[in-house]
Design brief:
With about 375 residues, the protein is an alpha+beta fold. The protein has 15 helices and 16 strands. Helix 1 crosses helix 2, helix 3 packs across helix 4 and helix 13 runs antiparallel to helix 15.
C-alpha cells in the first residue's frame, strides 16, 4: 500500500492503518529496535509502542516520509528503553559501542543521549552529511541512525569490515593529535597519502605516506606517520597499503594505470629506447581487474629489505643486449590513478625478476609465473 494511503487511514481513524504499517514497515522498525536493544522481547514491545505513538500523532501530523517518521519513533523508544536497562552500568552491546563512537562527535559534559537531541547538533550533522559522498553518507547513517553492525554494513556496501571501520573512524576524527603535534587531513581528502602537521609553535608542514616499515619486533608501523595506525604483522601486502592508506578494496576504485619507461639510463641509446618503449595509460576494466588481483597479493618486505629476486629469472627477446638495455625494455615505473583523483606513484615493476620494488631499498617477494605473464601482456613486455 502506498504511504499516502496508509497515512490517510490514520487520519480516518481506521484501525487497518496498524496492520498496513506492520505489513510494510514492521521488519524495518524491528531491525532498528533489535540493533539498539539486542532483545527480541524488548524490540517487539517498542515496535508495538511505535504503532500506538503513530496512531496518536496522526492526525494532526502528516509525515512527509513515513519510513523516517516511524523509524525516528522506534529509535527514540528503543533508546529510552536502553537507558532504563543500562542505567548505572556499561556493557558490550552494540548500542553501547555505537554511543561510545558517537561521543567523539559531540562535546560538552552532558550525556551523549542528551546531546544527540539538540537542535544545534542536528543542524551540524545535517550539514556534515550533506557534504559526504553518497556511499559514506549511507555508511554513517547505517551505523549511527540504524545502529547496524559493522559486518552488516560491510555486506550491504560490498566492502570489507576493516574498510568500513576505517571510513567511520575518519568520519569521526577529522584530525589526530599526539604530544606536540596535530595532524590534519587536507581539505577534500580522506585518505592517508597526505597529512598536514602543525607543531606547538604553529609551524605547518606537509607529510606524504611512503611505505610501511618492518620493525625489529616484526611489526608494521607507518614509516612517515609512525604510531598513526595499529601494528600489523610484517611482512605486509600491497593490498594492506591500498586498503589502509587509500581506502581501496576493489578494482572499481582504480580509474587507470600509467606505465612509464624506467628512467635511469640517460645515455643517447637509453633515451632512444625509453622513447621507443613510450608511456601508456591503461583503462581497460579487465586489465585493471587483473592488475588489482595481482597487486593485492604482492608481499612487500619493507624498507631496508634485500632484493631476493633473481634479476635473470626470465628471459626475453632483449635479454641478450645486456643488463642495462634489458632493464629499460623490461622495467616500468607505475602511476595508479584512483577514481577520486588520488595517485599512487611509488611502485615499479621489473619483468626481469618478476617482482615489484620501490626507491629506498624496498623490495617485494617474486611473483608467481602466471602473474608475471599477465602483467607482461598488459604492459607489452615480450
Amino acid at each position: 500500500m502506498e504511504d499516502s494511503k496508509i497515512v490517510q487511514l490514520y487520519w480516518d481513524r481506521d484501525e487497518r492503518a496498524i496492520s498496513a504499517t506492520s505489513e510494510k514497515y514492521g521488519n524495518y522498525c524491528t531491525s532498528i529496535a533489535r540493533n539498539i536493544l539486542d532483545s527480541e522481547e524488548d524490540a517487539e514491545e517498542c515496535v508495538n509502542d511505535t504503532y500506538l505513538k503513530a496512531w496518536n500523532a496522526m492526525p494532526p501530523h502528516w509525515p512527509s516520509v513515513l519510513a523516517t517518521f516511524l523509524g525516528k519513533i522506534t529509535r527514540n523508544l528503543s533508546l529510552n528503553r536502553y537507558r532504563y536497562h543500562t542505567a548505572g552500568k556499561r556493557g558490550g552491546k552494540e548500542a553501547t559501542i555505537v554511543l561510545d563512537e558517537l561521543a567523539e562527535l559531540v562535546s560538552g559534559t552532558d550525556s551523549v543521549e542528551q546531546d544527540i537531541d539538540r537542535r544545534e547538533l542536528i543542524e551540524a550533522i545535517d550539514t556534515f552529511l550533506a557534504e559526504l559522498p553518497a556511499d559514506k553518507r549511507g555508511i554513517f547513517l547505517c551505523r549511527y541512525w540504524y545502529f547496524d553492525r559493522i559486518s552488516d554494513i560491510a555486506s550491504r556496501f560490498c566492502k570489507s569490515e576493516n574498510h568500513v571501520s576505517v571510513i567511520l573512524n575518519r568520519l569521526r576524527e577529522p584530525y589526530l593529535q599526539e604530544e606536540g603535534h596535530s595532524w590534519f587531513y587536507p581539505s577534500g581528502v580522506d585518505n592517508l597519502k597526505y597529512l598536514i602537521c602543525r607543531e606547538e609553535e604553529g609551524n605547518l608542514s606537509l607529510w606524504v605516506f611512503s611505505n610501511f616499515e618492518v620493525m625489529d619486533e616484526e611489526e608494521l608501523s607507518l614509516w612517515v606517520f609512525e604510531g598513526f595506525t595499529d601494528p600489523v604483522t610484517a611482512p605486509y601486502t600491497y593490498g594492506e597499503v591500498l586498503e589502509t592508506i587509500y581506502g581501496v578494496d576493489s578494482a572499481e576504485a582504480i580509474a587507470s594505470i600509467t606505465a612509464f619507461p624506467y628512467q635511469y639510463n640517460n645515455t643517447d641509446l637509453g633515451k632512444k629506447i625509453q622513447q621507443e618503449v613510450g608511456t601508456h595509460t591503461y583503462t581497460d576494466r579487465e586489465d585493471i581487474a587483473a592488475f588489482y588481483n595481482i597487486i593485492v597479493e604482492v608481499t612487500c618486505l619493507g624498507t631496508g629489505s634485500e632484493n631476493c629476486a633473481d634479476s635473470n629469472r626470465f628471459t626475453y627477446s632483449f635479454s641478450a643486449d645486456g643488463q642495462e638495455i634489458a632493464s629499460i625494455y623490461g622495467m616500468r615505473e607505475l602511476t595508479i590513478t584512483l577514481t577520486d583523483g588520488t595517485t599512487i606513484d611509488s611502485w615499479n615493476y621489473t619483468a626481469l625478476s618478476g617482482s615489484f620494488f620501490e626507491y629506498g631499498s624496498i623490495f617485494t617477494e617474486p611473483l608467481p609465473e602466471k602473474a608475471v605473464y599477465t602483467l607482461n601482456e598488459i604492459f607489452g613486455i615480450e
